[in-house]
Please model this.
Amino acid sequence: MQEVEPNRRLTRPVHVIVLILFILYSLIMIKLLFIRGSSYRWAIYNYNIVPFHTIKSLIYHRHAYNTDAWVKNLFGNIVLFIPLGVCLPLLSRRLCNATRSLAAIILILFLVETIQLVTKVGSFDVDDIILNTLGAGIGLVLIKLFMFASRLKS
Model:
């Protein structure tokens, strides 16, 4: 049986496809996170630095929110960041390590939230970082399982 390098590189065409998909994903996320109408700019800026405050509020008082807002806030913040966890280890050998990937993901998400704080587009919410990290972590686990399964087939 042939020995497989743990962090083998993607073939060039696959790497280019993943890179193009990641760029498209990034552009979509920039649009969703930063390019919004005036309804997302607040006269009085709201922010949350208390972990799980928004999450608990959404869960305990879900009857006070319409279903669309509730689902978008909880599950949208998870699902939208799964591709980040998938793409980073595929595009960078250094990010194949789970600890490095999670550190990079948290840094990226903190930067996104800080930009929202400074520009007052959206709102800084530590719970967004938690939910987004959970989503990216799911993506990271999925790609690790896929890589593991593909090694077993080789």
